[in-house]
Design goal:
Blueprint (H helix, E strand, L loop, with lengths): L1 H5 L1 E10 L8 E2 L9 E2 L5 E10 L2 H12 L16 E2 L2 E2 L5 H18 L2 H15 L5 E3 L1 H6 L9 E6 L10 H14 L3 E6 L3 H13 L2 E7 H6 L1 H9 L3 E5 L6 H14 L4 E3 L10 H9 L1 H14 L5 E5 L4 H7 L9 E9 L10 H4 L1 E5 L2 E5 L24 H9 L2 E7 H15 L5 H8 L1 H4 L8 E6 L7 H7 L9 H12 L9 H16 L1 H4 L4 H18 L8 H10 L1
Parallel strand pairs: 8-18, 9-10, 9-12, 10-11, 13-14, 13-18, 14-17
Antiparallel strand pairs: 1-4, 2-3, 5-6, 7-8, 15-16
Length: about 575
């Protein structure tokens, strides 16, 4: 007994091979939207065998050698048979969910080789979703980024915003709804941040006659009121989440709690490449149609591949959908863009891959925003869809291997990109997409002439207009100091405009914005002083003037000067 107690446990690495009979991850060599053919290449991984030894020095040396992690390799299956991308991913879930996850993985693999399932899914993607989405040459945006010598990159947009429901999220929602039907699950739950995944899930539930419950942070519901209405219109029950930060992280936690309670009758349509295995793999497979189409369309348009792919990263589904088909093309640069919020040093951001550390959240190991005690830090982004303190495990793997690079842009930079694309191309992007577009300001000056850049336009910005109104003073280009004076004159005349009306408030803001933004146009003229004085008088009128009848004709005349 004493000898046994004195013995030291030592470990030595050994190699073992996957059995060719085990289920493997899938790759898709064809250009069909979804094709899950197995690859059967043998792969090795390091295992650990343990023995007892009396030599403590030798034991320490061997243990130290084992603890040195081998550099991650892109040649290994992604994920491996344990659902890991290198050291990331896995299943960190209650025992209650293990059977459901195993059942889901088995069903996914069995349907992956089912031609009837593929045919049904591809038909819905074509006729209902509207695939394939265009690869659009952004001519004026390209012109904007040309250097003085006339050279610069060519910018293309992968128009996922033109899909039914207005974002890439519908790709995964349709496929998982079909999967739920095959599993016999009639109750669907989902989490949502920006509301696009919630709308997509509510849409497919209406299409297939399934009960739909969406969990959404109360703060996000306020920011994305339009999408909340759309979900309810589609028949979904939207449950507000008030706990924690009342954003996407907390909505995901509530959805998982629901799933644990109702696992026998409920399927959880997770909206990103996060969460426990098999979700990161499964959601990626349903979104990789984005990259496959991009490859095909690039070949048709210029006879080659894109040189640079750019996508925003929150959980990372749209980015991995674009990147996946090009991971093995080492000459294609993969660029993910995170939300820097108020700035990386402000403590108010969602730049997980830039500033995070490795931890476990929502069933998977990945980079997380956490403090020294391992507690999750509240993230911030003006974009509800990027406001998440974690990221998909495959993105963590791509970062560590150096295959993809990850950068960040602030709220202000994203808002400017939101306005820029709207005015240059007539396309209003989602605030999530605006982060990817904003990084072009830093990227394009560094690129050689003629480089082909594809930005994933992951969603449209209708849902973000209310948010943009709060932060952007959008004034028409033709506004001048005299126009602002005209508005202020109208406001000053209490007989013309009800001083407490909503229209008066808006006009004050507009004239103030004109004064602020267009001072260079009127510098040296008396208009500046007049406008300032009139705006001050109008603001005072809001509280001092008695109620007066509203006469719109002078206001309309002033508006005509502006527009």
């Amino acid at each position: 007994m004493a000898a046994a107690a004195a013995a030291t446990s030592t470990c030595s690495p050994s190699k073992r091979h996957h059995s060719p009979n085990l289920s493997k991850p899938y790759s898709s060599p064809s250009h069909l939207p979804l094709n899950f053919r197995k690859f059967t290449s043998r792969a090795t991984r390091t295992a650990v065998s343990c023995t007892l030894a009396r030599d403590t020095a030798a034991a320490a040396a061997v243990s130290a050698a084992v603890m040195q992690e081998a550099p991650p390799s892109l040649d290994l299956p992604r994920p491996d048979s344990f659902g890991r991308f290198g050291k990331y991913g896995g299943k960190y879930v209650p025992e209650t969910l293990m059977h459901a996850l195993s059942e889901l993985e088995t069903a996914f693999h069995s349907l992956a080789g089912d031609p009837d399932f593929e045919r049904e899914l591809n038909g819905i993607l074509k006729d209902y979703v509207g695939r394939e989405s265009p690869l659009y040459f952004a001519e004026r945006l390209t012109e904007h980024y040309k250097r003085p010598d006339g050279e610069g990159p060519h910018i293309y947009l992968k128009r996922e915003d033109l899909n039914h429901t207005g974002a890439h999220k519908i790709n995964n929602a349709v496929a998982q709804a079909l999967l739920a039907k095959r599993l016999g699950k009639k109750r669907i739950i989902a989490e949502t941040g920006a509301g696009q995944h919630g709308v997509a899930t509510a849409t497919v539930c209406a299409r297939f006659g399934l009960q739909c419950i969406i969990y959404m942070g109360a703060q996000d519901m306020e920011r994305q009121a339009l999408n909340v209405f759309r979900m309810r219109l589609l028949g979904a029950e939207v449950r507000p989440v008030h706990s924690g930060t009342a954003t996407l992280k907390d909505a995901t936690s509530e959805a998982i709690r629901d799933w644990v309670t109702n696992v026998e009758t409920t399927h959880y349509i997770l909206g990103s490449v996060a969460g426990p295995h098999p979700y990161p793999m499964m959601v990626r497979e349903f979104h990789k149609v984005i990259g496959k189409e991009t490859r095909k369309q690039a070949l048709e348009k210029w006879g080659g591949k894109p040189d640079v792919l750019v996508a925003c990263v929150g959980g990372g589904s749209n980015a991995i959908g674009l990147f996946h088909d090009f991971v093995d093309d080492k000459d294609v640069r993969l660029v993910g863009v995170e939300a820097a919020g108020f700035g990386l040093d402000s403590g108010k951001h969602a730049a997980t891959l830039t500033k995070g550390e490795v931890g476990v959240l929502h069933g998977a190991m990945s980079y997380l925003l956490q403090d020294d005690d391992g507690q999750i830090i509240e993230p911030h982004s003006i974009s509800a869809g990027l406001d998440y303190p974690g990221v998909g495990p495959e993105h963590s793997f791509l970062k560590d291997t150096g295959r993809a690079e990850y950068h960040s842009v602030t709220d202000d930079e994203a808002l400017e990109a939101f306005k820029r694309l709207s005015r240059l191309e007539g396309i209003i992007p989602a605030l999530e997409t605006s982060h990817a577009l904003a990084y072009l300001e830093k990227l394009c000056p560094t690129l050689p002439n003629g480089i082909k850049v594809v930005v994933n336009c992951s969603g449209r910005g209708d849902k973000d207009v209310q948010t943009a109104i709060k932060y952007l003073q959008v004034v028409p280009y033709r506004t001048t100091g005299k126009c602002a004076v005209a508005l202020a004159v109208v406001l000053q005349d209490s007989n013309v405009l009800h001083p407490r009306s909503e229209r008066a408030c808006w006009a004050i803001q507009l004239s103030s914005a004109a004064l602020t933004e267009y001072v260079p146009c009127t510098r040296g003229s008396e208009d500046i002083g007049k406008t300032s004085a009139f705006c001050g008088d109008a603001a005072a009128a809001m509280t001092t003037y008695p109620e007066k009848p509203l006469s719109t004709s002078p206001l309309i005349a002033a508006m005509e000067l502006v527009f």
